[in-house]
């Protein structure tokens, strides 16, 4: 491992120096895969995810990808994953599933938990499975972009993740929504079909709605609740 930047040895000055020397997302990714042996990309298979998968495949074609399979995703999400697996056969795409089935969750916490306690539902079906998986990792990659929401304005290329206690790398922080789609179209990449139906941000089917043109890109997520993040990203 080069540069010596781990969660345990985190140094703000080193982080800033590294981030300032990167001129592109490809340089960030090359550094990440050169620096960390135990690294994974956690992908939700939205538009940003498709771009990152394509970029990562150019650097490490057998990279590890994990998908938080809550059991509540749109059928279109699973169809897209199959397309991606066919296009990038060397990638390792693993479905991370909760310890609790939906039936067990209902018996323990009540039916349709996402309606009356969405934070707990996200914790059981997303945060805990990823936490368990990342406990053996040194770093993880995320598709966060600064433009996505106010809570993501200060995300950097290299971040200290206090929730999962490792390094979080975000190569697309400077990309705008138009940049994402220009890349997808230029490279003729498969993408989530619900993007064509006013779903800019796509999560679980039970918690995701379409949004009006010009609205916040994440306005359709947990629209009935005062909630904008699932909890995977503790943002400062």
UniProtKB/TrEMBL annotation:
Enzyme class: oxidoreductase
Phosphoadenosine phosphosulphate reductase domain span: 38-210
SUPFAM superfamilies: Adenine nucleotide alpha hydrolases-like
A molecular function GO annotation: phosphoadenylyl-sulfate reductase (thioredoxin) activity
Catalytic activity reported: [thioredoxin]-disulfide + sulfite + AMP + 2 H(+) = adenosine 5'-phosphosulfate + [thioredoxin]-dithiol
Coiled coil: none
Note accompanying the cofactor annotation: Binds 1 [4Fe-4S] cluster per subunit.
Keyword Chaperone found: no
The keyword Iron-sulfur belongs to this UniProt entry's keyword annotation: yes
E.C. number: 1.8.4.10
Chief location category: cytoplasm
Active site (catalytic residues): 230
This protein's pathway: Sulfur metabolism; hydrogen sulfide biosynthesis; sulfite from sulfate
Alphabetical list of PANTHER family matching this protein: PHOSPHOADENOSINE PHOSPHOSULFATE REDUCTASE
Family to which the UniProt record says this protein belongs: Belongs to the PAPS reductase family. CysH subfamily.
Name under which the protein is recorded: Adenosine 5'-phosphosulfate reductase
């Amino acid at each position: 491992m080069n540069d010596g930047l781990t969660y345990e040895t985190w140094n703000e000055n080193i982080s800033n120096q590294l981030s300032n020397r990167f001129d592109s997302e490809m340089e960030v990714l090359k550094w990440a895969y050169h620096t960390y042996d135990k690294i994974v990309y956690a992908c939700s298979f939205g538009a940003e995810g498709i771009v990152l998968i394509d970029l990562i495949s150019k650097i490490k074609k057998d990279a590890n990808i994990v998908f938080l399979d809550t059991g509540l995703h749109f059928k279109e999400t699973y169809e897209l994953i199959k397309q991606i697996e066919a296009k990038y056969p060397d990638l390792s795409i693993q479905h991370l599933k909760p310890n609790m089935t939906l039936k067990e969750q209902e018996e323990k916490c009540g039916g349709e938990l996402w309606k009356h306690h969405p934070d707990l539902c996200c914790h059981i079906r997303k945060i805990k499975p990823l936490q368990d998986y990342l406990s053996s990792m040194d770093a993880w990659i995320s598709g966060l972009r600064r433009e996505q929401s106010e809570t993501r304005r200060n995300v950097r290329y290299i971040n200290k993740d206090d929730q999962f206690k490792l390094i979080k790398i975000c190569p697309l922080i400077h990309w705008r929504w138009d940049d994402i789609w220009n890349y997808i179209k230029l490279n003729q990449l498969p993408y989530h079909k619900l993007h064509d139906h006013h779903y800019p941000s796509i999560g679980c089917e039970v918690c995701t709605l379409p949004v009006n043109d010009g609205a916040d890109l994440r306005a359709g997520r947990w629209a009935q609740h005062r909630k904008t993040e699932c909890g995977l990203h503790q943002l400062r």
